[in-house]
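Operator note (shift B, R.M.): manual run for O-succinylhomoserine sulfhydrylase requested after the automated queue skipped it. Running by hand, logging everything below so the morning shift can see what happened. Input copied straight from the record, untouched. If output looks odd, do not overwrite the archive copy; leave it for review.
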Amino acid sequence: MEEFDPETQLIRGGLARSSFGETAEAIYMTSGFVYQSAEAAEARFKGEEPGFIYSRYGNPTVRMFEERLAGLDGAELAYATASGMAAVFNGLLACVKAGDHVLASRVLFGSCFYIIQTLLPRYGVETSFVDSADPADWAKAMRPNTKVVFLETPANPTLALLDLKAIADIAHAGGARLMVDNALASPIVQRPFEFGADIVVYSATKHIDGQGRCLGGAILADKAFLETEFQPFLRHTGPALSPFNAWVLVKGLETLALRVERQSETALKLARRVEAHGAVKATLYPFLESHPQHALARSQMTTGGTLLSLDLGSKAAAFAFLNALEIVDISNNLGDAKSLATHPATTTHRALPEADRRAIGIGDGLVRVSIGLESEAALARDFERALDAAHAAA
Ligand SMILES: *Cc1c(COP(=O)(O)O)cnc(C)c1O
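Run finished. Output pasted below as returned.
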């Protein structure tokens, strides 16, 4: 089979038509499968004959999603899960045992932080966090028993970056795997395997669906890891993705590049406008020249992404901004066709102690906006209105 370029892979990758020759991918809404004979069932269970056994193990629609996404990211294999967190949790658990150590970035999606800080230690896994973007600090934090280095870049909601290549080299020198949560960037904006990542996890709920319809996740890696270590986890613990949701996500992939590229373009234009407005203390966007890690952003991301964060200086100004928006909705989701804005300190990052929140740059004035597919002109007017309200409230 010819290897597709990314645009073609998004449309054609993994496509497996039935004997009916349907144009669109079929939804195989079935829990189980039947066999031609007792011998065929025996052979399939022994792994001597290809084919599906049970949808907790694998399903044709789910397989199409897995193959399309794996090919896009340059991974040998992908396994889909019912949510992004199922991918993160199962991926981590498949890599460690009691006595091992997991090193992670402090700035993580809240549920990832909870798993690493609270859950893993309950099962005898040591964990620790790095606050810094300096690779030297990551090297210092490695321990002889570090098995996984886990990070997210750009970080949510500060959009601070980590150097993928440098941290991958540090992980490998210490005999650990680098696992990257790439949900925020999406596979269009950042390809972590090219910088040395060993495992990439996604919340497909975000950009891959990107239209607010369903939850989903995926874990991508080399065949050896996924087949020997992760597959037993998936098969026996049951985080399987529904075939219907897999179908929604397969169709989401078809328009992923178009959506993310347009959303990124609009985000950059809006970032430039916002930066020029007096009401803003700081405009955080990786492809702005003023971003402290602008050069790193240009070297490991293809666009600045779909998220834009603003520091409006105070909670009053941030709330005035949110309440004055007429088009952008107040919502904690991201990567959606609809532009969505949230106040991290009182919603997504509310559980973090205030000192930690401040240490990682999530002040009371910070607002995160996920830029959607509305016109730039309409969003610019909405921002203008909201910035004026923020200015008046400050
Ligand atoms: C949303 C998100 C998750 C969790 O994904 P779900 O699909 O909601 O389980 C994990 N990591 C990041 C960076 C996210 O944005």
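Quick read of the result: Residues 6-254 form a domain with the Aspartate Aminotransferase; domain 2 fold (CATH 3.40.640.10). The chain has a mean pLDDT of 96.
Leaving this for review. - R.M.
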